[in-house]
Amino acid sequence: MDCIFCQIAAGELPAERVYEDEDTLAFPDLRPRAPHHLLVIPKRHLDSLAGARDEDWPAVAACLRTVAHVARTRGMDQAGYRVVANVGVDGGQTVNHLHWHVLGGRLMTWPPG
Ligand code: DGP
């Protein structure tokens, strides 16, 4: 298995498991871009939203549920937060395992770079 996020999901690479359930895992981003910066992944490998098939949407929905849950438990929901899924080369995706960035704790700017 050469996917780092699969290895994190399997417990083979270290990460603080902020939240997990049967289908999803949330852990801190190695290179935080905001005071709060978590990543949410499906435990089952999916490359990105671009390749999602009909059978993958329940995992996507489960991830978004986890996004909202960790934002709430980390206290980001009051002031607000940003959710980002980079997709492919133009989207700036560097790890090819579907993931959402959950960023909070500061005012975000728009448009993104
Ligand atoms: P993206 O560029 O959207 O594919 O985001 C990938 C993020 O993954 C990036 O912000 C850094 C983070 N990252 C890369 N390797 C590791 C790792 O081994 N552990 C953790 N916690 N985060 C990682």
Detailed description of the structure:
The protein has 113 residues and is an alpha+beta fold. The chain has one domain (4-104): HIT family, subunit A (2-Layer Sandwich), CATH 3.30.428.10. Helices cover 24% and strands 20% of the residues. It has helices at residues 4-9, 57-73, 88-91, and strands at 19-20, 24-28, 36-42, 81-84, 100-104. It has a five-stranded antiparallel beta sheet, with helices on one face. β1 and β2 (24-28) form a beta hairpin. The longest helix has 17 residues, at 57-73. Bound molecules: 2'-deoxyguanosine-5'-monophosphate.
> Looking across the biggest beta sheet, what order are the strands in?
1-2-3-5-4
SS-based class: alpha+beta
Alpha-carbon Rg, integer: 13 Å
CATH topology: HIT family, subunit A
Number of domains: 1
Helix content: 10-25%
The number of E-state strands comes to: 5
Summarize the biggest pleated sheet: 5 strands, antiparallel
Ligand inventory: 2'-deoxyguanosine-5'-monophosphate
* CATH homolog superfamily: HIT-like
Portion in beta strands: 15-25%
What's the short story on this structure?
The chain is of the alpha+beta class. It has 3 helices and 5 strands, in the order αβββαβαβ. The protein has a 5-stranded antiparallel sheet, covered by helices on one side.
Topology:
Layout: H1 4-9, E1 19-20, E2 24-28, E3 36-42, H2 57-73, E4 81-84, H3 88-91, E5 100-104
Antiparallel strand pairs: 1-2, 2-3, 3-5, 4-5
Bound molecules: 2'-deoxyguanosine-5'-monophosphate (DGP).
